[in-house]
Design brief:
This protein has 163 residues and is an alpha+beta fold. Helix 1 packs antiparallel against helix 2 and helix 3 packs across helix 4. It is globular, with a radius of gyration of 19 Å. The termini are far apart.
């Protein structure tokens, strides 16, 4: 199972093509939003986008940010991911059915295609008389970069464990 390629420029170009083909305008504020999301290396909130972009020249307004985020989510270009906070957190995706693994240290999100594990679980549940009507799968753990690089969170945890 190969991870899905979410290279920033590829993602942005494909979103722009879809935006234009759906009859929407590719305005400067929308370009700024797409560029910011394309280069985000961790999940984000719409408020993060507002904080980053609203004060810039040619920047987006709060309503434009929220409308664009909702359009991207409904079109499958971003997905909501589990978050402990009160706001929805999003990660860059490609349209289609995917699952994701989220690093609990840095927030990096790995997109995982396929439903092999879900298919096995569905079969098991059907044998128990349960009818599965849908699923969402999010896995949480520590990414390779965080496992091999000391971060403030891991250093604090290690310091507590060794004292």
């Amino acid at each position: 199972m190969e991870p899905v390629d979410l290279a920033p420029e590829m993602w942005r170009n494909r979103v722009e093509e879809m935006l234009i083909s759906s009859g929407q305008r590719l305005t400067m504020p929308r370009r700024a939003i797409l560029d910011w999301i394309a280069h985000a290396d961790a999940p984000f909130t719409a408020e993060t986008l507002v904080d980053e972009l609203v004060d810039q020249r040619n920047a987006s307004s709060r309503p434009t940010v929220y409308r664009t985020v909702e359009w991207l989510r409904s079109a499958g270009w971003i997905a909501r991911v589990q978050s402990d906070g009160p706001e929805h957190t999003y990660a860059r995706m490609l349209p289609g059915h995917y699952h994701h693994a989220v690093c609990t240290d840095c927030g990096t999100t790995l997109v995982v295609p396929g439903c092999e594990a879900i298919n096995s679980l569905t079969t098991l549940l059907q044998q128990q008389g349960f009818e599965v009507q849908g699923h969402i799968l999010e896995l949480f753990g520590i990414c390779e970069r965080c496992r091999t690089t000391a971060t403030p969170a891991t250093e604090a945890t290690n310091a507590m464990l060794t004292s």
